[in-house]
Amino acid sequence: MAKGRILSGNRPTGKLHLGNFAGALANWVKLQEDYECLFMVADWHALTTGYDDTSELKEYTREMLIDWISAGLDPEKSVIFRQSDVKEHAELHLLLSMITPLGWLERCPTYKEQLQQLSGKEITNYGFLGYPVLMASDILVYKADTVPVGEDQLPHLELAREIARRFNYLYTPTFPEPQAKLSQVPLLPGVDGRKMSKSYGNTIALSDPPERVRELVNAMVTDPERIRKSDPGHPDVCTVYAYYKGLAPEVLESRREECEGGQIGCVACKRQLLKTLLDILGPIHERRHELAVQPGLVESILEQGAAKASPMAARTMAEVREAMRI
Fold first, then answer.
1. Residue 141 burial class via C-beta count within 10 angstroms: exposed 0-12, middle 13-18, buried 19 and up
2. CATH architecture of the domain with range 5-188+296-324
């Protein structure tokens, strides 16, 4: 029996990397065994900051979807669809925007943070400010009761709950209040120790060939104070150890003991991490190669997903219109 209904998704920004895999995708693959899952290609969300260049949007969607399926998302077990293919998202977004106080959006901490981070880009538009309302619509239109998120998304999910409560109070109880399912995996840093970001060129893509993975692992930043193998190491400042923590927790304790006890050098530790990563990526590479040569596969999966998602969203919108008497 499914425990509940999950809605989650990603903006299509191209090929995924190990940070995406550890932080969300690997968990999604497990969740689809126990929950009724909907996974959404959030192409409208991509426009909130990338509205000025949509030339790669379709290709990014294709690459991301191939990574999803290669990593284990199964269209037979989960509903995999594109946000813009289900117009009810837009209708509910419009209606919910009518009851959402402006102050709720302006106080959202992620709004202020991104304004600072993207200060060189013109994003003082409603689409960016109203992003949390669209996110709430994505969740509520399917009456999803569980949303897997990282801690940085908790303010958005709390806003979705507030909007659901306000709608239920103003009209008729219609929406469940979605609950967070927090990811237990720590964020992976980039290979240079900074935040993992494609713009920094410090990511390991799920599609990177073994030679490229080896090159990137060898470039990883380790404990700067450790000169010789026999020197006691400090794993908590080491990028290599952070990857063990995120992707191979079963060996974490032994790696810490070996590092702090001077029993393993950084080169050998990287060599063992490389084997771990290639063991993870090998099956993904095989499936990715099989999928990449199948013309029309991505559109077929998205069409099937939209055919399943649309009736669910339509039923909710019928209830919403009746509740609002429109």
1. buried
2. 3-Layer(aba) Sandwich (3.40)
